[in-house]
Design brief:
alpha/beta
């Protein structure tokens, strides 16, 4: 199972492997307080897309399409996460945005789940 959580939330037993998927270090989070297993900043949206989107819900659909295209070019990192999902029961994608609906981790989860389904067929 793939979960999505803000990096500021407390870890839970259901989280499994906790992976930060943001390009930038989370604002206000001390490294000593960080509670994640892995940081894959390379799988985050490119800076130009991230800055353009700026978490504007009106830009969501276009951001989603662009980021899905970017993910197709990040196969090494995608495969790494898919392997982690197969090895463990749960994978939690961590993000720092305030918006729980419109963020890159939501798109990444969608992409990973679609890849898992297509590989099951």
């Amino acid at each position: 199972m793939i979960l999505v959580k803000r990096v500021y939330e407390q870890p839970s037993d259901q989280d499994g492997l906790r992976v930060l998927v943001d390009r930038l270090w989370p604002r206000g989070l001390r490294k000593s307080e960080a509670r994640f297993d892995l940081w894959i900043k390379e799988i985050a949206p490119e800076n130009s897309l991230r800055k353009w989107f700026s978490h504007d819900p009106e830009k969501w659909e276009e951001f989603r399409k662009c980021y899905l295209r970017e993910l197709e070019q990040k196969e090494e990192h995608v495969q790494g996460l898919l392997e982690k999902v197969r090895e463990r029961k749960n994978l939690t994608l961590l993000y720092s945005a305030k918006d729980e609906t419109f963020n890159n981790a939501v798109v990444l989860k969608e992409y990973l789940e679609s890849r898992l389904k297509s590989q099951e067929l």
